[in-house]
Amino acid sequence: MTHAADIISSPRLLLGPGPSMVHPRVLRAMATPPVGHMDPQFFAIMDETQALLRQLFQTTNRLTFTLPGTGSAGMEAALLNFLEAGDSALICVAGFFAERMVEIAGRATTDVRRVDAPWGQPIRPEQVEEALRARPAKIVAIVHGETSTGVRQPLADIADIAHRYGALLLVDTVASLGGVDLPVDQTGIDICYTGSQKCLSVPPGLAPITVGPRAEEVLRARKTKVQTWYLDLTLIQKYWGTDRAYHHTGPINMQYAMLEALRMVADEGLLARFERHAAAAQMLWDGLEALGLKLFVPVENRLATLTTVLVPEGADDVAIRRQLLLDYNIEIAAGLGQYKGKLWRVGLMGYSARPENVATLLGVLARLLPR
């Protein structure tokens, strides 16, 4: 019998768009022996996780918990739980992952409209208002931190417009929550989800989500069953609530990891955490420009947790990323969609957002790049 390569992989400095580096405290928590998913000890872990998630989302929403699955599971749950056949969805598209929203929403309803912005630019509030004035929508969906472009999307004005026209605001924060400030309640976000593997520095596998009172009322008023059983929030909330009704076998050790990561967020403090990510990003931006590289997104729209840099003329995109990975154990990512081969994407998320990591990457790039 032949075996695959040793499961102990070479250590990598993960500076791509996710997953990010995992802190030793989180790894140790994952090694804790599991208990049953209906064990009172596990219920206590769920309760603490829920309380800390509310602090992270900066919300008081009753429906706040983790979903079993990656950030894409959060996206699917956020859309399919609130859209029924015949409902209208307005999707704000300014990158690869907003396009995925269009695909998922189209499986729930045929009435999916979109407003678009060029990659590298945010959606303008007047675009949303014009579309809703022409015809209202049940949901306005938008990505806060677009992983494909590195754009940070302003949300306050769009939230006001959505509510003025009677729509719920659904926001993807997979690449931003925990790394940049986004107060869910203060901003007026009705449905918000993220992924465990980005700014929270937990391995991929959980999708935290929070649902506000307006959206909860819409969920209760559904005329048909939610299309997805596994991600049906009307069922999952009973497992996380006082009923403790069995729905699925909870991912015990992933929940241990999430709790420990959230404890670390609370220990650091949200403001200090946001400042750390901002400082690491500024160090990266300054260093890249000092190397003569051009950043894709104007500074006023830049996302601190994900930086996009144009591949310089004369540089071999694939060869340099391969050399970074194989010779220096550093991972950065290629561009997506129309910018494949034209961009590098550098993530500074969670435990990866440290000055020593930025200095290491800049030093290696200085050696590899043609002058």
Give an overview of the whole structure.
By secondary structure, this protein is an alpha/beta fold. The chain has two domains: 106 residues, Aspartate Aminotransferase, domain 1 (Alpha-Beta Complex), CATH 3.90.1150; 243 residues, Aspartate Aminotransferase, domain 2, CATH 3.40.640.10. The protein is 40% helix and 15% strand. It is built from 13 helices and 14 strands. The strands form four sheets. A seven-stranded mixed β-sheet has the order 2-10-9-8-5-3-4, with helices on both faces. Strand 8, helix 7 and strand 9 form a beta-alpha-beta unit. Helix 2 crosses helix 10 and helix 5 packs parallel to helix 6. It is globular and about 60 Å long. The mean pLDDT is 96.
Topology:
Blueprint: E1 13-14, H1 24-30, H2 40-57, E2 63-68, H3 71-80, E3 88-93, H4 96-105, E4 111-116, H5 125-134, E5 139-143, E6 145-146, E7 151-152, H6 156-164, E8 168-172, H7 184-187, E9 191-193, E10 206-211, H8 213-220, H9 233-240, H10 252-268, H11 270-290, E11 306-310, H12 317-328, E12 330-331, E13 333-334, E14 343-347, H13 355-368
Parallel strand pairs: 1-12, 3-4, 3-5, 5-8, 8-9
Antiparallel strand pairs: 2-10, 6-7, 9-10, 11-14, 13-14
Helix pairs in contact: 1-10, 2-10, 5-6, 11-13
Could you name the key traits of this structure?
three-stranded antiparallel sheet; 2 domains; Aspartate Aminotransferase, domain 2; globular; 371 residues; seven-stranded mixed sheet; Aspartate Aminotransferase, domain 1; alpha/beta; 13 helices
